[in-house]
Design a protein that fits this description.
3-stranded antiparallel beta sheet; 383 residues; 13 helices; single chain; 2 domains; 37% helix; Aspartate Aminotransferase, domain 1; 15 strands
Length: 383
């Protein structure tokens, strides 16, 4: 029996990461210094976006994103129920209404057809925007969603928290990296320890819009700017132009993010090798997330579906394999049920939740550890 714990995800911190943090701790700036701007520029270049704004976590990034687009009380936004609650909560922070559309039962992504049906059931202007999620690292087809959004005059925020390094190939045969801003107005990323790029906590918002970029910068730091300082005023002068927030990322975290970012392509490549081994072992035996042609999954997660999910969860735990469930459908959480979302017809999402379980997936997962996981899954389901 395996005695070492195999988690579903974990960070990988190496000497260069540690050295980068130590050097920043010895520098003049622990926050609001040069490392933040360096991280932003390198991340924007990596993603292929014009602008990037570092924030203290992805939830803050989502909040700033909806505010920068002018979301306000009484507005309505569509998102997926299979996501972390933050994808929906950011809408509620602005006083707006969340409307859920169902998922595709094979990709687990927000269904274009379900969104289209919801939009066409209401008059144009009823909704303001859509927040699709690159769930588990699989990119959403934003070219299709952009076309649909344009039909209804909607904005798009890509929740790319699971997918730095992922991409899809559009109809012009161009690989579109998640969050590059070519189809969505804004992209949001997470730097939580189990994500691809670990900063302890942290996030990034990307965009190709200079107008949105400047709004994000203002809202990130209390709504304060020094841009309008006059000649007769001292360097201490500032203006608060909007009710903003303290959503800044530190130089310490940014230094770690820079070294982590440099290794992300290698990490995504390893994640795909792990996914390939899972797929070869489970093909025809266990259902897993479909990979459409011309899509590159960044594989934050590897999710399978089984009939007795709780039984498998406990069985694997007995063997020190720690899995996770991603996610309890947002519309079934008490807060959302209490404000009237329990009647939504989201059968694909609910069926998926009844069977889903996320297996260990991280670049430092060893071959023998993965084989042990596979063997135990197949043993449990008697294949």
């Amino acid at each position: 029996m395996n005695t070492k714990i195999i988690p579903y995800g974990r960070q990988s911190i190496e000497k260069d990461d540690i050295d980068a943090v130590i050097n920043t701790l010895k520098s003049d700036f622990l926050t609001q210094g040069p490392k933040v701007l360096e991280f932003e520029k390198k991340f924007a270049d990596y993603i292929g976006a014009k602008y990037a704004v570092a924030v203290n976590n992805a939830t803050s990034g989502l909040h700033l994103s909806v505010l920068s687009l002018g979301l306000s009380k009484g507005d309505r936004v569509i998102t997926t129920p299979i996501t972390f609650a933050a994808s929906a909560n950011c809408i509620r922070y602005a006083g707006a209404e969340v409307w859920f559309a169902d998922i595709n039962p094979n990709t687990y992504l927000l269904s274009l057809e379900s969104v289209r049906s919801l939009l066409e059931s209401k008059p144009k202007g009823f909704f303001k925007g859509i927040i699709p999620v690159d769930f588990a690292g699989l990119p959403i087809n934003l070219e299709d969603f952009r076309s649909l959004a344009n039909e209804h005059n909607l904005w798009l925020i890509e929740d790319a928290c699971h997918a730095p390094g992922g991409y899809f190939t559009d109809t012009k045969a161009v690989n579109q990296r998640c969050g590059n801003g070519n189809y969505a107005d804004l992209g949001v990323f997470s730097f939580h320890p189990v994500k691809h790029i670990a900063c302890g906590e942290g996030g990034m918002v990307t965009t190709n819009s200079e107008v949105l970029y400047n709004k994000l910068l203002l809202l990130r730091t209390h709504g304060i700017t020094k841009e309008n300082m006059q000649e007769n005023q001292g360097a201490w002068f500032y203006e608060m132009q909007a009710l903003g927030f303290n959503y800044r990322l530190t130089d310490i975290q940014s230094a770690l993010g820079i070294t982590q970012l440099a290794k992300n392509d290698k990490g995504v490549e390893k994640r795909n090798k792990i996914a390939k081994m899972y797929k070869q072992a489970f093909q025809g035996k266990v259902k897993f997330q479909e990979l459409p042609k011309k899509f590159y999954n960044a594989h934050h997660l590897f999710v399978i579906e089984v009939e007795n999910r709780k039984g498998l969860y406990e069985f694997l735990k007995e063997h020190h394999i720690f899995t996770q469930i991603h996610y309890i459908p947002v519309h079934t959480l008490p807060y959302y049920k209490e404000i009237g979302y329990e009647t939504a017809d989201l059968s694909n999402a609910e069926n998926y939740y009844s069977k889903c379980i996320s297996l260990p997936m991280y670049p430092t997962l060893k071959h023998k550890e993965q084989k042990f996981v596979i063997d135990k899954v197949l043993e449990y389901i008697n294949v």
